[in-house]
Amino acid sequence: MSDPFVRYGLRRVINMSGTETPYGASPVRDEVIEAVRSLVPHSVFMTDLQTAASRTISSALDCEAGCVTACTAASIAMAIAGSMTGNDLGRIEQLPDTKGMRDEVIIQTGHVVDYGHNVTQNIRVAGAKVIQIGAATDCKPYQLQHALTDRTAAALFVVSHLTVQYRMIDLEQFCTLCHAAGVPVIVDAASVPDPRPYLKSRADLVLFSAHKAFSSLTAGFIAGRADLVEACGLQQHGIGRPMKVGKEGVIGAIAAIEAWASDDHKALQAKIRERVERVVDRLGVLRGVKAAPQGRNQVRLELDANVAGVSAGELSTHLRGRDPAIVVWDLHSEAGILVLTLSKVSDETVELVCSRIEQVYHGATVKA
Question: pTM above 0.85?
Fold first, then answer.
């Protein structure tokens, strides 16, 4: 096939912002492409494919069961639906009418985020009622205990850099209090590189993306309690039908998690750490720029526009306007902060990005 960027007039993008879906998420692993190529010319029983997916997820994550969905947003809606219906097909067909069911879902207010849409819409699309607890920057255990009633179907815990990162109820205590009331905990961990710690924290279902940290085609994973995973899968006969995943998504996700399980994560992390240090050293010498590691795979840049001659927002705009477009995380650009994510790019790409930043910086400094 001819170059799709040329054929369809697409802009080339270097995504240094992370694995966000507006930029096509992560580059797809070779193992995934090969697995998809080998299966898609053929027909297959989707139940057999999902059974294979469950075995693979269970083995890789040491959990009871798993399934593949269309994406994490779909996983949330299906997990909420499953917590209300169980495996009762009558109730599954009844949704989003929740008459006769537990239909309240608890979420900490500091976890109500927007990642393209408000996370609570995934709850409401199943017909459930959202029960927010605490304030935007504070939530206490007694508030969770008070909200847990005989109407509570589930509680949703969101893991994201967009959530409030302090003074929230942590996952372990969240699970303890919910389980004492007989309420399952669903964890939205869409972007995490390793879902196992959340399963070990006794979450009943952990939901994560196949096309972000796992570098697959667009899809989502649900992992955890076998009975709830089964209830999620049965939602294809109800509200999950418009969210169904195809054979390419399932086989891609299987290949991705198998490849992830065989990766040398220590070696990969060491390589990323070296890359982070190299970028910090290179960009940190620019006047008016402070560069520092952030987390395990990011570099945080703080720009003093008066000294650097260019603001964080201007630098981001310049980078995005070039060819190829370079996208950086600029949510806090008004505060002079940009973040570069280095986990899904090559050393050659990092070299290009650093060179572009230096070009913009020196050009702006000369003009200033």
Answer: yes
Cα-only R_g, the chain: 22
Nearest to 279 by CA among 359, 361, 354, 355: 354
> Rounded to whole angstroms, how far apart are CA atoms 324 and 98?
49
> HSE on the CB side for 269, CA within 13 Å?
7
Alpha carbon distance 327, 17 (integer Å): 6
DSSP state of 335: G
Q: Residue 219 contacts by C-beta under 8 Å, 6 or more apart in sequence?
A: 68, 69, 70, 71, 209, 210, 211, 245, 249, 250, 252, 253
Report, at the CATH architecture level, how domain 28-262 is classified.
Answer: 3-Layer(aba) Sandwich (3.40)
The DSSP secondary structure of 114-179, one letter per residue, reads BSSSBTHHHHHTTTPEEEEESBTTB--HHHHHHH--TTEEEEEEE--TTS--SSSPPHHHHHHHHH
CA distance 67 to 79: 11
Orientation of helix 265-283 relative to helix 347-367, angle to 10°: 20
Return the CATH superfamily for domain 265-367. Aspartate Aminotransferase, domain 1 (3.90.1150.10)
Query: How far, CA to CA in Å, does 73 sit from each of 81, 126, 230, 232?
Result: 13, 12, 18, 13
Tens-digit pLDDT string for the chain (368 aa): 689 999 999 999 999 998 888 888 899 999 999 999 999 999 999 999 999 999 999 999 999 999 999 999 999 999 999 999 999 999 999 999 999 999 999 999 999 999 889 999 999 999 999 999 999 999 999 999 999 999 999 999 999 988 999 999 999 999 999 999 999 999 999 999 999 999 999 999 999 999 999 999 999 999 999 999 999 999 999 999 999 999 999 999 999 999 999 999 999 999 999 999 999 999 999 999 999 999 889 999 999 999 999 999 999 999 999 889 999 999 899 999 999 999 999 999 999 999 999 998 887 654 54
Residues with Cβ < 8 Å from 76, sequence gap 6 or more? Answer: 119, 122, 123, 156, 186, 188, 207
CB 217 within 8 A of CB 210: yes
In the chain, where the domains are located: 28-262, 265-367
Furthest CA-CA distance within the chain: 70
Question: How many angstroms separate the CA atoms of 69 and 253, rounded?
Answer: 9
